[in-house]
Amino acid sequence: MIVDLAETYRNTDIGHEAEELLAPCVQCGQCTFTCPTFRLTGDEWDGPRGRIYLIKQFLEGKEPDPDFIPPSYNLGALTERNIGANLQLHLDRCLTCRSCETSCPKGVHYGRLLDLGRELAEQQVRRPFKERLARRAVRAVVPHPRRFKALLRIGQTLRPLLPADLRARVPEPRQAGEWPQRNHARRMLIWQGCVQPAVAPDINAAAARMLDRFGISLMPASDGCCGAMSYHLAATGEARALMRRNIDALWPHIEAGIEAIVLTASGCGTHFRDYGQLLQDDPQYRDKAKRVSELTKDIAEIVAEEWKEGPEHELPPPARPLRISFQSSCSLQHGEKLNGVAEKLLKRAGYRLMPVQYPFMCCGAAGTYSILQRKLSLSLRAEKLKTLLAGKPMAIATANIGCLAHLASAAPVPVHHWIEFLDERFASAQAR
Question: Distance (Å, rounded) from C-alpha 360 to C-alpha 331?
Fold first, then answer.
């Protein structure tokens, strides 16, 4: 794709990066039919090809051409809004699931292009007051663990009195269980995150118990937001400040020789892996950010490496059938490119994974999407639950806290992180 940059963006770093990101795209449309929002709305502007075209037009300072794609596609009405408003509207509706990246034959880095487009649109288009207030309120609470936990505990206390719809959105308290106390020579650090410690403290505790069995001490790092939420809401300055703070908190542990930074939330893991690229223009943090990205590991990678193959390492068969459906979080399969790793571990542990149609489809959680794009989010969740429940599973396993909370608020069966299922099987095998 050839881009004729507007004067504003010529000879600028952001303009050059945009040209490089857009260049491989040939507008073939192969990404379109793996896009959850396009499949839901049927609107080309709500698919990757349409959004990429809008970013291109924006960078060229042109109004969008409604005839850029064959008329058989539903293009929506763009003529009543200027290019910046159109761009902002349709980028807001994007889930950042990156399914399009997986299906793109040209390797277009859509995720980075999306964040760049959001940042530029946010700078030039003033949102309505109600939208600004909602986005600011989310950023003022969710990335701050103490504020979020306090608000959650109030909601949980008042839960019986809340209307049914609101009550379903407040998760019931979960217990963490025992955290191993043994000290091993091998040490890894686990990033706690901002939401997960309050909503599901049992996840990291289960991860610690699993690694304890492999002779690894898992040490909690200071909690806090990885920066992904602010970054995807186009608050890039705030996001980078959070990233630098996290690097400062992690650096003494890195210097002390930890093996890895372990994450059980695949959304955070995806963002941690991008630290090196996102801070590459920061001379003070560039090298440290790269090192953090190099040390980042999803819990699935660690368990897959440590759980050795061979009959002596296999668990006894379960006493009863253990049917579960696995919801492969978008950040796990498209962001971290770890599709199939957790599934293989669950099968080894004796779980029967029920077939799930359209596994690339997002559940609609997508960070703050379930709050700011509620209607689309609920529609996507309903479609995802249909496919997850089709095989009549006893439970649903997932790999990201946002997916877990979003699905659990509507699923008729329990929803847990897959590491909890694995920990449970190891514990029951040891108890025999």
Answer: 11
Neighbouring residues of 309: CB distance < 8 A, sequence distance ≥ 6: none
Distances (CA, A) of 16 to 11, 23, 124, 304, 420: 7, 11, 19, 40, 45
- Distance (Å, whole) CA 286 – CA 294: 13
Gap between the Cα atoms of 176 and 131, Å rounded: 36
Q: What is the DSSP letter of 194?
A: S
**Which helix (H) or strand (E) is 423 found in, with range?**
helix 418-431
Asked whether the predicted pLDDT for residue 85 surpasses 70, the reply is yes
Number of H helices, E strands in the chain: 23, 8
Q: What per-residue confidence (pLDDT) applies to 103?
A: 93
Provide the terminal-to-terminal Cα distance of the chain, rounded to the nearest Å: 62
Query: Are 396 and 190 a contacting pair, CB within 8 Å?
Result: no
- Grouping H, G, I as helix, E, B as strand and the rest as coil, residue 76 is coil
The burial class, CB within 10 Å (0-12 / 13-18 / 19+), for 91 is buried
Tokens of 198: 């309050």
| pLDDT attached to residue 79 | 47
Compute the distance between CA of residue 121 and CA of residue 116 in angstroms, rounded to an integer. Answer: 9
Between CA 314 and CA 358 the distance in angstroms is 31
Element (H, E) at 409: none
Q: How many residues does the chain have?
A: 432
Rounded-to-integer distance, Cα 92 and Cα 272, Å = 22
214: alpha, beta or left, given left = phi > 0 and alpha = psi -120 to 50? Answer: alpha
In a 10 Å sphere around its CB, with 0-12 CB exposed, 13-18 middle and 19+ buried, how is residue 151 labelled? middle
Token pair recorded at residue 332: 């796990």
pLDDT of residue 71: 41
* pTM of the predicted protein model: 0.91
Residue type (1 letter), 251: W
